[in-house]
Amino acid sequence: MTAAIPDISFRGVSKRYGDVLAVDRVDLDLPKGAFVSLLGPSGCGKTTCLRMMAGFEQPSKGDVFIRGDNVTGVPAFKRPVNMVFQHYALFPHLNVGDNVSYGLRQRTPKPPREEIAKAVDEALSMVRLSGYGQRRTWELSGGQQQRVALARALINRPAVLLLDEPLAALDRKLRHDMQIELQNLQRNVGITFLLVTHDQEEALSMSDSVCIMKDGRLVQIGTPRELYDEPVNGYVADFVGKSNFFAGTAGRAHEGLIDVTLADGMKAAGRASKSTARPEQGSLVLVSVRPEQIRLVAATGDLPNGVAFRAEARVLNRIFLGEQTEYIVTHERLGDFMVRSPRQGNQATAFEIGDRVAVGWSPDAALILAKE
Fold first, then answer.
1. In the predicted model, what is the mean pLDDT of the chain?
2. How far apart are CA 341 and CA 298, in angstroms?
């Protein structure tokens, strides 16, 4: 059976601006109908990749394909992609309907007026703005303006919709609501979406797959769960969610676990990531433990069954987050690290700053990563 042709492919794509190598030998496929995110910090090359997909930039090396056709060198207006910008880029002198229909009205030959009006109505209905065609853009909320920008991009039925941090200008609650709307919209229209963002929550909550970038290169591609549970290195573990890292030396492997000697001879054990090779005995490693995987009790209390590592620590900071409490605790040899304790019913075990506590985790909660 022949494999489906990706909607967009990069083959050995690099982009250089003078002495700066912004994108370095990237190979990437966007499957048809998928919701994919490029995730990374500022300056990692994700926006440059987006601009090369759109045709606003051309690769210094390598090729860009859209549905199997090599579009390297093809300008933006000749590519079957549309882009939604961070600040929407709506025309203030046009009403909502004219903003949405702008792309159709630039076609040669221009579609009949009735056809354009029908397409505008369908596009506005798609983003839940039916009846807003005569409104002025400045009369709309930020979320409504963003949906107008989406309608304008979708009315041409592009092969791929490119989203350049489209939720960055929205407040937290509206951003969360729009994440759900974008997911639903993508499923309904069936168009491939590519989202560029530095917001891990945004990428993890909406995407079928996430591409982690660093210094112009792809570090790991996977589903949100794969990236969270099986990162290839400390960079991914730290960027996707939050994690605590404890330096040590790898010992022997047994029963799927690896023994580790931590600072000052403390002993621990953990599992190797399925996404990378098992660290060799004697090599320097990082023990990565997610804050929610660490158990926290009073210093005189008993940790749950299955907890193999135990240490006594002192609470430095406490942040109440509603459904959980975030603690920063300190240990004389392990240093400072984070613990997230879930709320248990109406009674949450609350520790005060300065309290002595016991912390621990099970071997399955500790991920052993090679130290880079």
1. 90
2. 13
